[in-house]
């Protein structure tokens, strides 16, 4: 579904990614791992067209997208749950979901605002609250729901559990496990390796903008040396 080949991205004179490559097949859950500052979010920004790649190729469902605008990439069926949530303070929960609702993957049983409220019951109870009236956990649920109602081919989550209380974090993990079981293709950036090896099929670890390791969950779970070497666990 997604193929990134030889990706190089910079901010001005400061290069961040150096020939990074990764692939995601339809129905897979894949992670992008690494310490802070290693280029994970820059990789996502490059995929979404938010930061233009200097070199390399990004293909989504057989179509080159590295030179396309972010709105065209989103309409092609990639949805991002961004780091920092980026909720509109003056829109209600329901307005957020209605404004973004689409069926970009052409699903027979698409995600709707009401289905999001079934997934996150607490969010449903606050459907008429404005974005700035929600807790951090509720804002994260809304950010995920907002992405889901676009019915994407690929869902990308950048630090979706960061800064959340343990109970809310568990609710997010349960949501991801449900999406995974339903066959949603997912790319996850997160730091909770113990949960990621249970959720994902494959993992890519990056170090200073380069791929340091790639492999399956069984391999990553068995080699705790990788955790210490590249993930600071």
Summarize the structure.
The protein is α/β, with parallel strands linked by helices and 233 residues long.
> Which shape, going by the Cα principal axes?
globular
Structural class: alpha/beta
| Strand segment count | 10
Averaged pLDDT? 94
* Rg (CA only): 17 Å
Strand content: 25-35%
Order of helices and strands: EEEHEEHEHHHHEHEHEEHH
Largest sheet: 6 strands, mixed
Q: What is the CA–CA distance across the termini?
A: 31 Å
How is the topology of this model organized?
Blueprint: E1 2-11, E2 14-24, E3 29-33, H1 40-47, E4 55-60, E5 63-64, H2 70-75, E6 78-81, H3 93-100, H4 113-119, H5 121-125, H6 136-148, E7 154-158, H7 166-181, E8 185-189, H8 193-199, E9 202-207, E10 210-216, H9 217-222, H10 224-231
Parallel strand pairs: 3-8, 3-9, 6-7, 7-8
Antiparallel strand pairs: 1-2, 1-4, 4-5, 9-10
Q: How would you characterize this protein structure?
A:
It is a single chain. With 233 residues, this protein is an alpha/beta fold. The protein has helices at 40-47, 70-75, 93-100, 113-119, 121-125, 136-148, 166-181, 193-199, 217-222, 224-231; strands spanning 2-11, 14-24, 29-33, 55-60, 63-64, 78-81, 154-158, 185-189, 202-207, 210-216. It is built from ten helices and ten strands.
Keywords:
single chain, 233 residues, alpha/beta, 6-stranded mixed β-sheet, 4-stranded antiparallel β-sheet, 10 helices, 10 strands, 36% helix
